[in-house]
Amino acid sequence: xxxxxxxxxxxxxxxxxxxxxxxxxxxxxxxxxxxxxxxxxxxxxxxxxxxxxxxxxxxxxxxxxxxxxxxxxxxxxxxxxxxxxxxxxxxxxxxxxxxxxxxxxxxxxxxxxxxxxxxxxxxxxxxxxxxxxxxxxxxxxxxxxxxxxxxxxxxxxxxxxxxxxxxxxxxxxxxxxxxxxxxxxxxxxxxxxxxxxxxxxxxxxxxxxxxxxxxxxxxxxxxxxxxxxxxxxxxxxxxxxxxxxxxxxxxxxxxxxxxxxxxxxxxxxxxxxxxxxxxxxxxxxxxxxxxxxxxxxxxxxxxxxxxxxxxxxxxxxxxxxxxxxxxxxxxxxxxxxxxxxxxxxxxxxxxxxxxxxxxxxxxxxxxxxxxxxxxxxxxxxx
Length: 382
Prior knowledge:
Blueprint: H1 16-33, H2 35-65, H3 72-81, H4 85-100, H5 104-138, H6 147-150, H7 152-175, H8 180-196, H9 198-213, E1 221-224, E2 227-234, E3 238-243, E4 248-252, H10 253-257, E5 262-263, E6 269-278, H11 284-301, E7 304-313, E8 318-327, H12 331-352, E9 365-366, E10 372-373, H13 378-381
Antiparallel strand pairs: 1-2, 1-5, 2-3, 3-4, 6-8, 7-8, 9-10
Helix pairs in contact: 2-3, 2-4, 3-5, 4-5, 5-7, 11-12
């Protein structure tokens, strides 16, 4: 049968009654001539329907057992649990239409309804997988209380609109509607919106980058430029940092990611450099024994010596440098270890008779002829 359609692809109104009557007559004739195949196909379709319902129920149980997003199995299970009954029904019917050998109009109707249900069901599945991936990240322990988790509602809306817009275009194309102009209009509108809100989208994608790449988390201590502090919250547009001196710093997500960020919380150890000067009058034997002495002192204080050696000849002392590591990222604890090392060095130097000289400078005066003279008059010397 040939169906007349308008320029937009829809049947003309004066042919609707004729098409409906032809559909009913063809269906009745088909039911009378193929009743056995229809009964067998119906039984198979019912079996397939309940099988798919069982798979849907399995997905709901997996989702409930995994508390929604505990692992990828739970994420996939939640997506399966969102399968619609209309889609399951159309899948069951579509699988048996070939065996029942229906009329062309009935087969076209089934295929049309199946295409609609499949397009929107795929959009739902894809949406749930994306949501599951994002929520699985945000529900980690280090993201509890994060402002980014509460901002997921906006992300959900954007993803839903995009996916269902694509599904709608596919359905309209299946109806015979010329969607070229619609797609072009949506593209131009999307470009205009993107240009107008490029700052918003830049911060949004930067927030997603922080979420998935995880250069830092809430509670981490970070340092960038001349700023340092603890991450308080990660929002949709900005990240808030509590500086070590008490101030709250607010940076846009894009601006923050453009910087070189040091995550101090991921440090394996804290290294401290401690210079020390020893008087030139110290015997060479004692100077040679100093690195071993420094190692002993550092290990007793709870550090790990990295370097203990001479640095050079200073203006008033032989300069040594001590570099040691303290496990972890606790800077205050590392400073306490440094204090213990400094006090222990002073005690050992006092016991060994080693002095740390003050910076000194000797000045000489001369008359115009270049002869050295004392810096005070002879009367004062008497």
